[in-house]
Amino acid sequence: MVEGEMGVRVELPAGLREYAGGKGSFEVRASTLADAIREINAQHAGLAYRLLDDQGRMRRFVLVFVNEDPVAHLPPEDVRLKVGDTVRILPSVAGG
Amino acid sequence: MADAKKGDTVVTVGTRKGLFIFHSKDRKRWKKRGPYFEGVEIRHAILDPAEGKTLYAGVTSEHWGPMVSRSTNLGGRWELGKEGPRFTKESGLTVTRIWQLQQGVDGSLYAGTEPAGLFRSENNGVTWSSVDSLNYMKGRDKWNPGGGGLCLHTILPYPKDVKRMLIGISAAGIFATNDGGDSWRMYGAGIREYGKQKFVDREDVSTCVHKMARDPTDPAIVYQQNHAGVFRRNRGDSRWSLMEKGLPIAKSTGGPFGFPMVAHPHDRGTAYLVPLVGDYNRVTPNGAMAVFRTTNGGKRWDRLSKGLPQKDAWFTVLRDGMRADDGDPAGVYVGTTTGQLYASRNDGDSWSLIADHLPQVQSVEAGTIGGR
Asked: B256 preceded by cis ω (within 30°)?
């Protein structure tokens, strides 16, 4: 194991768990948010499509926090992760 | 699917909040299934017309993206595709909504999207490929959206000729291919200029097509509800011609305003419309709902209202809110933005309410279990 590339926890909201075999959280090896999404997509194909638009950015109404910091506005490959980080994915409160 | 049998009529109703399925043996008594995909917009859903078994639903989650789901047991179980249609990264575009699903002549499945795009699946919606010749055609940067967004809403394959297809994009116009999508031509000549009694002469002009339908006995005859009027185009015509006699005229556009255009499944020259007041007030005129029918290719339209609400009925019927089944006489189904589903089982002569208080109806489709 390479330091800095493992031990990141990713938490999914209830609305995404049906695409992840019912799982609500994952431990992944990832040094960026893009890595983390690739990792969980490797386990549950299609999850990345749910999160990323056609340009590879986070979808418009998807929120992402690394620990307490909002990062959905950043390119996922630019969001650095380190061991012990928690990535929380949430749907934004929107719509009618 | 135990209570649904071969030959039963199926009506799929896509709404702002889920998919509803109605099925009937005699088109008098209906059973309801759903809602499926609760809380999620279903812009369009179809029953495969050839085999009459597989349902496809365009599922638009605002949060998690648009997908096409499939069921082979009338909604009992839905299989989710892995990915929906996608534009290329270089395009700068992202698919946000599935507007239209259509079975191709060769058994493939087509999807029309917002922003306007045409995509094709050869594995029942599991994966998709872009029809690049249309999606990235020169001039796309000049396409403007209509009120519903820049959407590819009509896909009309040509029966028995896999290379021919007609599509409609609001408000980019009408495009057709005769060579399997290698090239596309626009068909705008003859459409009314907004608010005038003048008509465009050039084919390569963007017009706001709302819906088109092919005549059942001659698919080269196409009927069109446009933002600025109602038109037909015959085999070999060099332009669209008016077919508006008997229809209410909107004072803003200069012609009849509405969204759906439905052709009868068997009878040549028979088609259906639901005119609205106009683009400034998109409701049924005078609070009285009516479907208009022509039986002679648009020479004359007649108002059909028996069984439809004639008082305090102020709603819209969206472009995919009306369809006919394959029956004889034909069943015609109309869904409203206020959640009613009306049905006729006698070519539109009279109507009855199948369902009320549904979420806003986005689309209605009709088919037969076991196929045509």
From this structure: no
